[in-house]
Amino acid sequence: MLKKNQLAILVIALMLITAGYLNYTSGDETIQTNSNVLETAALGDATLVDTKPVEENTIETSKIENTKQEDYFVLSRLDREKMYSQMLEAYQKLIESTSISAEQKAISQQEISKVNQTKNAIMIAENLIKTKGFEDIVLFVNNDSVSVIVKAKTLQQEDIAKIQNIVQRELGVEASNINISNKE
Fold it and tell me: What residue numbers bound the domain in which 39 lies?
């Protein structure tokens, strides 16, 4: 009985992590048509169509692109926090349940503690990396691997080393499990 409930908790946690990762990897696409840039969101989202001529719309398009870039980091952090909140809520429901044993409740409490420690380590790492001169950054943790997306045109080798060092120290991840990329 204990093994089945532990397995159920593990499956729920993996499903939530997978959902967050899939949400992260299904980023926006850009389609270029007749020198107009049309940005499309996820399937089913409404798209605003502007009927202004291209000459008048050029400045507005660049503003929209800049806003989208800034929003990527904000929205990614919000999605990550939403995923962690859902995980914490699921574990809290298990703790509050009267149908599970004290051992299972203790395991759920440990998982809540792990999630909170991970959230704290991510926040510290992001803030430390920002102090190294990077405009914005978002980290995603998936088991023993970490994906780091930095707002930058390019990343120099020393920048990558700084980021890698901070992530290793704060999240306790091996360098080979850290994926660092840039996004303008």
Answer: 2-183
Question: What pTM value is reported for the model?
Answer: 0.62
Instruction: Please count the structural domains in the chain.
Output: 1
Task: Tell me the three state secondary structure of residue 150.
Answer: strand
2-25 and 102-130 helices, crossing angle to 10°: 30
Model confidence over 80-119: pLDDT tens digits?
Answer: 999 999 999 999 998 898 888 889 889 999 999 999 999 9
Comparing CA positions, the residue from 76, 174, 167 lying closest to residue 118 is 167
Dist CA 101 CA 109 (whole Å): 12
Task: Output the domain CATH number for residue 79.
Answer: 1.10.287.4300
Distance CA 82, CA 93 (A): 16
* Two tokens, residue 82: 């939403």
